Structures are given as C-alpha cells and as structure tokens.
Amino acid sequence: MKAYGPVSCSLDLESDGFRSGNIRLDHSSNEHAAALIPIPIHVLKNGEGPTVMLSAGVHGDEYEGQIALRALAHRIPLGEVTGRIILLPAFNTPAVRAATRVSPLDGVNLNRAFPGAADQGPTRAIAGFVLQHLIPLCDFALDLHSGGTTGLYEDIGYLTLAPDPALRARCVEAADWLGAPLTYATAMGDTAGDYDQAALKAQVAFLSTEYGGGAVLSLNSLAAARGGIRNILHWTGVWKQAGAVSPPGTTYVTGVAGGLVLAPEAGLFEPAFEVGAAVEAGQTAGWIHDLDEPARPPRPLAFEASGRIYMRRAPVICHAGSILVAVARPISRDEALALG
User: Which domains does the chain have, with CATH numbers?
Assistant: First the structure.
C-alpha cells in the first residue's frame, strides 16, 4: 500500500503483468459524505527496462489525451513491452467527472498544486501522491493536455528546459521523437506548482503537450496524440514495436515580447487568422464587437510581434484581460537547447 495523506493505492506496480485499478482519494464533502473517489491507473510490466508514465486529465475539460490513454491500455500487447508503462488517463478525476479545468472539490488547478501537500485539500494530495510515489519510478513522463474550454491550440509539444545539461538534452530529444508540428520551448521559470517543473526537479525527463481544444474532441488532434505517444514509447525502448523508427522532428518556437494579444474590454472577438498562421507585427489580429453599443464600430486589435499563432481563445465572448491570440517566434534546435 502506498499512501500520501488522504490518497492511497494498493495496486501492484512491481510484478510482471497487466493490471488495472484505482488510486483512492478519501474525501468528505456535501456531495461525498464519505467516499473513496477512484482515480484510474493501469500498469503494464514485462521484465527489466525503462519505466514510462503517461498521464492525461490534469484538467478535466481536455479530452484527446484522456481518450488516447484509455484506449492505449487495451491495445499494447504485454509481450511487446520491455520494462514498465504506467497510465493515468484521468489524473484529476474530480475535474474530469465535472468537465472543469479545476477540481470541483476545492477549486484548485492540479497543474499549480505541485509539489503537493498531505493536509491542504484533495488536489494537492493527489499531486503529492504522484510526485512521492510514481515519479521516482520513472525514466520518462509525458503529460497530455489540450486547450480545454477556453483555448484552441495547434498540436504542440511543450518543452520546459531544466538547468541540468544532460536532462535538458534528453527532453529535447523527446520533443524530436514526439514529432508534433510545433514544440514550444521555455526555460524553467517561476510558474508556481506546475507538474513539468516538479518532475524535472526530481531529475525525471519530462514533456507535455497541447492537442486541440475548445472542450471538444478533434479527430485530427486525437490521431496526432496517438502517433506522438507511440513515437515516445518506441524512443524510450519500452515498446519498440510502436511508432516511428527515426525521430520525426519538430519546429521549435518560443515566446516573444508582445506575443499575447489581450482583450482591452469585454465583447465578441472576431479573429482575423486561424491557429497556425504566420503573422507580422502591425497586422490586424481581429476585432472586438461591443456587446452593449450597437452604434459603435468593431474595434481592431493589432499584433505587436511577428511569428506563428500557436493558440487562440475558443469562446467568442471575451473579457478585459482575456488572452485572445498567442504568437511565438521560430528558433533552431540549438537555440532551444540554449534557452535559460
């Protein structure tokens, strides 16, 4: 039995075989007077080899990764596995069941809850359990996201670069093998509580993704997620029969000053470009249509930076401060390795 505060799991993670079960969250609230909320986990182990953990559902309204991992658990022939694969298809199960970004139990964003705490609510306890009991088993971890309710993404890898040169190089190699059209690269920063940085601080190579968005299931993004997962499993050696036999490669991008187009006021946002478009500073990014003043003409908004649109807002109604469009600038692989 592994436990961390109110979170526990009795599933055998060490013996050879395929096992499905649950991590249990002991929680009491108005809805759950007394409950052990199940968080699904699958383990496939066959002999000696690397351990790779794949997760999805950190945010409950992001679906491509959840479906890809739920199906994957039943499609990998155990005899083709060399090592161990751990699957968490609904990492934040309370949010998954509520179809929300943050947990309905405590209003906490799981991707801001690391390194976790045993006595500060259910979401931080889930984070702490994974960081204490599962991450130390791993040679590599992949966390699958999408844009959720509010964002539409080009299919991208999200690469946080650790200070350690060897760990950094392995994460960049993982991005090459994932093979997403874009990989957004950034140095470790001051984002409090995110999973990427917690895993890297534990010296585990880590990559996350954004596939699709809008709280709908994109079949194209689902196919891209499945292909990327198979590539990663092949590259790590845990399932050599999966994926590409050589790294598909990717285009690296990073943030640029002025790359975010923010809503100056509430209204209806009409974008001028789709995700993936190349744009120039000064071009019109879109228009804000006033909700209350029909005589007022649409307000144009301009790009302040040149680059490629990797994300735009999904809901048409926006509020002052909403990120409407995000632009990144292309960089070389060597520049990505040198960030930070």
Answer: 2-249 (3.40.630.10), 256-329 (2.40.50.100)
